[in-house]
Amino acid sequence: MSPHSENDSLVIERDRWLGQEIFRLSLAEEFIKSVPGRIPPSEYDDLFANVLDCYQYRSACEDPYICGETFPSGYVADKSKYQEVLFAYVGSLNRTESEDKLKDVLARLRKYIPFSHDWRDPQSHQDPVDEVSPGPAGGTLVRLSPPALEQLEQDAMSFQDKQFDGLARYTALLHEHGQKIGEMPSYGEAKQSIRSGLPWFSTTVSYRGVEGHGSASTKKVAKQAASKDACDKLGLSHRISHLYS
To answer: Distance between CA 217 and CA 2 in Å, rounded?
Structure first.
């Protein structure tokens, strides 16, 4: 390996490391604004680990305004590969681009936190801001207590029910668009996993060469989230206001 190649490799590794830290900090700032005030700081580590695990890395990478041009049509990889590409991209932006450019990309990346805007507890914004104590040493995750798990499940089901009608519009939009061109969207089977002791479902929809990804605490909302992701990628989402005005 030539000295030039070694230097290039070192730059990429540094970009990836720093990009990961910048990315985590950006999501942590969104998380701390969104997490319900009644959740104690001792449980932040576990919940934030859930956010990182459920983050839509592939959708973020495929976003044409982030690093979508990096991927050829039909490219599919595992989550770790998308993470590496995303972190390296953020790190390179920090090194080569303006601060405003980096802020714009980080703001766009935050929209791929599953339902981040729906976590917010309106009552928590009216309460005084509590001092946040540091997490456990060494990053050890704190297991949620049973009452907190029960409350978290109730909160999740509540906001999912409220959001279902709005998200269902994107599924209807895809269906209507498909009927017009004679090509209907195809939904994958929902896959179940466990996140912080709660059931979590992920699914995909394929339509016109684009794959939309969605995840939520119920199958039906995961499907609607996948529809929204596909509409966003295809540039169809702006039609929602006209369709339901």
So the answer is: 50
User: Which residue reads 């994958």 in tokens?
Assistant: 188
Fold of 144-245: Double Stranded RNA Binding Domain (3.30.160)
Measure the CA–CA gap between 67 and 90, rounded to whole angstroms.
Answer: 10
Residue in 218, 161, 231 with CA at minimum distance from that of residue 190: 218
Lowest-confidence pick of 204-213, 218-227, 235-244: 235-244
CB 186, CB 206: distance < 8 Å: yes
Quick one: CA dihedral 207, 213, 218, 221, positive or negative? negative
Q: What is the pTM of this model?
A: 0.49
Domain boundaries, the chain: 1-125, 144-245
Helices (H), the chain: 3-34, 44-54, 57-62, 79-96, 99-110, 146-181, 219-234, 239-243
